[in-house]
Recover the amino acids of this structure.
C-alpha cells in the first residue's frame, strides 16, 4: 500500500504531462476557434465614437449599409499583437478595397486616440466598447480578433489573433473564400 501511495504522484504527473503534450501538438490552429456567429448576421451593435478621435461610431445598420466586404477588427491600444497587425490591416484596406471597422475594446479613449494618431487610422468607423458588452455579443476570446463580413452583413469568418506572418496567409485564404 505504501508503494502505491509513493507512485501515485508520479502517475498523476505523467497523466497531466501527457495531456499537456497532446494539447500543444497536432497542428491545432488557435485562430480557428469555432463561432456560432459564422453564417449569421452581425449581432446588434450600437457603439458611440471613441472620444478624441474624429472617426464616427457605428451601429449594425450602419455596417450593413456599407458597400462590399468589411473587416470588423476588435483592438486595443494596450494590446501588443494589435500593434503588430495594424500595418497589415491598413494595407489590406487600401490595396484590397476593404472597409475597415474598428471596435476599441476596454480601452481608455485618450490611449486609443494616441495609438491611432501614432499608427494611423485606417477605419471608416470606430466604436468604443469600454464596457466590453460588444465583445461579449461578438463572442471574442481576446484581442485582436477580426471578422470578415460579406456585403449583406453576414459574418463569414472569425480570425482570433493577429493578422501577421502565417496568420496573414490564412486570413487571405479566408478572404479569398468569401470573395468567391
Amino acid at each position: 500500500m505504501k508503494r502505491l501511495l509513493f507512485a501515485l504522484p508520479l502517475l498523476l504527473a505523467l497523466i497531466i504531462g501527457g495531456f499537456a503534450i497532446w494539447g500543444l501538438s497536432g497542428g491545432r490552429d488557435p485562430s480557428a476557434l469555432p463561432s456560432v456567429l459564422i453564417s449569421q448576421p452581425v449581432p446588434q451593435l450600437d457603439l458611440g465614437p471613441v472620444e478624441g478621435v474624429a472617426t464616427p461610431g457605428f451601429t449594425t445598420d450602419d455596417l450593413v449599409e456599407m458597400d462590399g466586404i468589411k473587416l470588423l477588427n476588435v483592438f486595443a491600444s494596450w494590446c501588443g499583437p494589435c500593434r503588430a497587425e495594424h500595418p497589415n490591416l491598413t494595407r489590406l484596406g487600401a490595396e484590397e478595397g476593404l472597409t475597415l471597422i474598428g471596435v476599441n475594446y476596454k480601452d481608455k479613449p485618450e490611449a486609443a486616440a494616441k495609438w491611432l494618431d501614432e499608427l494611423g487610422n485606417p477605419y471608416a468607423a470606430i466604436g468604443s466598447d469600454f464596457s466590453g458588452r460588444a465583445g461579449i455579443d461578438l463572442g471574442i476570446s481576446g484581442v485582436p480578433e477580426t471578422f470578415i463580413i460579406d456585403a449583406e452583413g453576414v459574418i463569414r469568418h472569425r480570425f482570433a489573433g493577429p493578422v501577421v506572418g502565417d496568420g496573414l496567409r490564412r486570413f487571405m485564404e479566408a478572404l479569398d473564400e468569401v470573395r468567391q
Notes: The chain has six helices and seven strands.
